[in-house]
Amino acid sequence: MGKIIHITHNIRPGGGPQGYLYNLNEASKGGKHLFSVMSDSISSSRDNTSYLHKKIPDVLLRHLKPIKYIVMLMGFSNLKCENLAFQSREEMLCAHSVTVAARLLRSRKKWKNKKILLMPHGPVNYSDEVMDDVNSLHGISFISKLYRKVLLHLENRTFENVDGIIVAAKEGLESYSNLDKIDMRKCFEIMTGLPGLNCNLSKKNSRELLEIPENRTVVGYFGRFNNHKGFDYFLSEIKRICDHPSLFFISAGAGPLTPEQIPNYKNFGWRKDINILITACDVVVIPNRSTYFDLLPLEVLSLSRPVMVSESGGNKKLAAVSEGVINFKLKDGELASSIEKFSNMPQMEREQLENIAGLSFENLFSQEIFLARHDILSQRLSDYFNQEVPSIKVMV
């Protein structure tokens, strides 16, 4: 079978499939590997394109967006690089979104020998994620349930028709419960990695630059401001302890939920200097209600900062294999209690935890390990498809 071609519309630093493939592409440069990355475009900038304000009225967007998503799941999205992928000699094409997979499945009618794989990256299945965002941003339409039902049908069909499914953590599929066509017999697991972040500033200098208190325990939240990521839970928890004299909270990101005015809390909006924001923190929290397997906690560990994660989806895998990770239950007061407990740690224990976090990244999630896992994945998938009677293969 040969190599896998990993495909998406665009790649750039950050999270999601774009960030995942950007990291894989950058890490693989200059070496020979059993995979390659192909996209319509590439950017080196950590841009926010998810929540740009539109001038179209909400009453129209609550219909136009679902219709657009339905068309994409029918396989009619534009994928400029598809001809190049299909004309290549490689027989395994891995789509990194369900809409790209739908497009490749539609186009495969002309290229019978290709195996189409799907690696999802969302905290929940695509249909629920996009419809929840539409409802939050633009309001619920009278046929919102119908849009969701059609989207789920098309998404199920795509999962059923692909030849294989790749996941970063099988626990991350817990939030895909609305899909009933995920065949675990064709599911492969490969744990994520990345090149890691660097920051030339110290914790003290980072705080000076960001104008936040130097002598407090700084707790950070970074990413999308929505319910799936638990941003509302983060805000409700810090309200419980915002008057604590030794605590300070920061956030940066964008999304349908709006940050609130809370004492000892500063929101930076969308920023590209995530390395400085993380370095300024003592701990970063990931309070996801639904988790696939986020890249952010790995970036945090790479900068030798401990991370607190909710006991959901892929976070369970992360907490199980990695030191430097503190888990908490998504219950009222649990995160607040964990933060208070962390803030009361002696300084020596905190420094030890930071060292453990950095070592955990190097031993489990470095780019060298990431590349090796993908080479092994390519070989195992090739063996899987070459078998006369395919068997279940799960790789960690």
Brief sketch in words of this structure:
The protein is an alpha/beta fold and 396 residues long. It has helices at residues 16-28, 58-76, 82-87, 98-107, 126-138, 144-161, 203-210, 231-241, 274-279, 296-302, 314-321, 334-343, 347-364, 367-386, and strands at residues 4-11, 35-42, 92-95, 115-118, 164-167, 187-189, 217-224, 247-254, 265-267, 283-286, 307-310, 325-328.
Can you put this structure into words, describing what you see?
With 396 residues, the protein is of the alpha/beta class. The chain has helices at 16-28, 58-76, 82-87, 98-107, 126-138, 144-161, 203-210, 231-241, 274-279, 296-302, 314-321, 334-343, 347-364, 367-386; strands spanning 4-11, 35-42, 92-95, 115-118, 164-167, 187-189, 217-224, 247-254, 265-267, 283-286, 307-310, 325-328. A six-stranded parallel β-sheet has the order 2-1-3-4-5-6. Strands 9-8-7-10-11-12 form a six-stranded parallel β-sheet, with helices on both faces. The protein starts with a strand and ends in a 10-residue tail after the last helix.
List keywords for this structure.
396 residues; disordered C terminus; 14 helices; alpha/beta; six-stranded parallel β-sheet
